[in-house]
Design brief:
The protein is an alpha/beta fold. It is built from six helices and five strands, in the order αββαβααββαα.
């Protein structure tokens, strides 16, 4: 799952972030996004799409990710914001906030399926990213 991240590092991107969100299907709650820059030398076994990981395993992985990551950030859009700007725009806003909360800021961001407007760094949308990229999968676990 780290093939894309490793390829980007080989061409000069040092901090590769993954970003994902949860809560788009919920009728009443917030949408929560997380962004994660994994340490290239610290593989975390079991990191995959949060929808495929049992809750107890997600909690264990959460602890490993936050301890071993170069950086991680979480942000949300509340129901009022969702009502004001729609769920898609609220998801993008939460993802942008999570990315911009990273310190250091990433060189490039891998986004699950979309592109996030208004980012000051390179980005790439990855279809089914939470199943194809470790950083996006880690972000899905943190967000959940």
């Amino acid at each position: 799952m780290r093939t894309l991240e490793n390829a980007l590092r080989r061409v000069g991107f040092c901090h590769v972030a993954g970003v994902d969100e949860v809560g788009r299907g919920c009728l009443a709650g917030p949408v929560v996004a997380a962004a994660v820059v994994l340490h290239p030398g610290r593989h975390i076994p079991g990191v995959c799409d949060s929808k495929l990981v049992p809750a107890a395993e997600r909690e264990r992985l959460f602890e490993q990710i936050v301890r071993g990551a170069v950086a991680w950030g979480v942000a949300a859009s509340d129901p009022r914001e969702i009502d004001d700007i729609n769920i898609h725009q609220a998801s993008l806003t939460a993802m942008r906030r999570a990315i911009l909360a990273l310190a250091p800021l990433p060189d490039i961001v891998l986004v699950d399926a979309f592109r996030v407007p208004g980012l000051p760094m390179a980005q790439r949308g990855v279809r089914h990213g939470d199943r194809r990229c470790s950083a996006i999968a880690a972000a899905s676990i943190i967000a959940k």
